[in-house]
Amino acid sequence: MSLLEVKNVSKIYGPLKALDNVDLTVENGEWVAIMGPSGSGKSTMMNIIGCMDKPTMGEVLLDGADISKESNKALTAIRRDKIGLIFQQFHLVNYLTAVENVMVSQYYHSMPDEKEALEALERVGLKDRAKHLPSQLSGGEQQRVCIARALINHPEIVLADEPTGNLDEANENIVLDIFKQLHREGTTLIVVTHDPEVAEEAQSTVVLEHGRLVKEIINENFKED
User: Fold this and answer.
1) Residue 23: CB partners within 8 Å, gap ≥ 6?
2) What is the per-residue pLDDT for 88?
3) What is the pTM of this model?
4) Cα→Cα distances 104→50, 92, 212, Å
């Protein structure tokens, strides 16, 4: 059974079809990139996979269960328990330290545990910056705090929206190295990106245009470490 199956999914806003009859299957432990020009439906796809929105038509199966008809409250619980979200804009709480920002995610899931949160920061190379506020961190460091926050509750899927979009090349490489390590550990990764170099790190890339999935590219050079 596939971890995630998107079946004949459409999302309609009045006369606009943001997604038009899209099918996508993601296996457990797979790394998939989603690409497409502005307005192609990438963000809509992320919102539906990430349980932040529902399709107008079609099914979304997670662990074999159809989540497309669940209530907003149920979707919140699924997102909390099964999905780790990484955003381009970071969405860190400005008045909380790095470790406290990670612990916020624990709070909504179970119970904050500073030791575990510090271990998550250590995993992304930021344990020594744990007591710093977001304003005291570089953009790359803030993104790594976001990754630690996404990982702290051991999600089944890590869903990243343009995770390197605001980063310079050096920090982009740091983030990609973290993703490679996560993949080696068996984490399922879905990365929305406009950057072909980021997409080339994935096992496969799906391309959206005008809400339709027009192409799926298998990375023949992908290396399993």
Assistant:
1) 6, 7, 8, 9, 213
2) 79
3) 0.90
4) 18, 10, 36
